[in-house]
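PROTEIN ENTRY
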Amino acid sequence: MQTTGITFPAEWYPQSAVQLTWPHEDTDWAPILDEVVACFVEIAREIMKREKLLIVCQNEDEVRSQLGELDETRVRFVEMPTNDTWARDHGGISVFDTFGPTVYDFVFNGWGLKFSAGKDNQITRNLFHEGVFADRIQPANMAPFVLEGGSIESDGQGTLMTTAECLLSLNRNEYMQREEIENHLKDIFGLSRVLWIENGFLVGDDTDSHVDTLARFCREDTIAYVQCTDPADVHYDELQAMEEEIKAFRQLNGEPYKLIALPMADEVIWEGERLPATYANFLILNGAVLLPFYNSPKDEIARKALQEAFPDREIVGINCLSLIKQHGSLHCVTMQYPEGFIE
């Protein structure tokens, strides 16, 4: 049970819209822009089948030409300058608090000052200025606290799951001790507890082990996680240790979680570098789950595993080989807003 009147809804809570921040020639996507735009178009079309799509972009006409025919009732464009496309991490985080629906605007500093993010840090407040959110939605400036959406998982019932590697990293909130960070998260999200994952990483990950690359809530009683069974894989020891941690987690009622093992994605190499391909980076939508595919036989293994976790939702595979060339995947480029937040 939550300790306050604040609720941080789970991703499976009914949604009003999903945000995409569109790639353009001034982003790091420039060398493969056509390739990644095709992936964004596929994601956009799947979202619009089920709910509204909010597109943050530099040039609306250009994006419209890329998308083709549109149902205008299912899409909203907002033009503004952007550095990059990782909406999960620069997007607003939705909560229900004692004053009503609220969008938290945390500081986004390029994953601990690794990359330029000054424009992306302004996106959520710009969306408020553009009147994107419903009239009753309150904006909340959460500065100076640095937090990315990909670093936290909520079960909607007062439990948050995160990784120590990310939340305790330098150049985010290093002025706070672990206990202070945990207490702050409990206060602002109305939590009763935080589940800390101490182990686990992916080669090529720039986020300091965001939880959405490793382990995800699928229901209040179910966690899907990346499992590595190959002792020759560089991830083996860390992911085995993470698996043991997750097995030891308990629900609020004291019962163990139902665990869904997702396969460790086959090694993907680009320009001599291993990329952080992961099946945990899926997006839950109204009636569906979008699952990153990597042109591998393991794609179908991952689909079947997730279908067990989401028996009433369609599991839709999206080829995300282009996305991981910039070290992220499907969940990383999206941010959902609950029902009633965007009209």
User: Anything to note?
Assistant: Residues 136 and 153 are 25 Å apart (CA to CA).
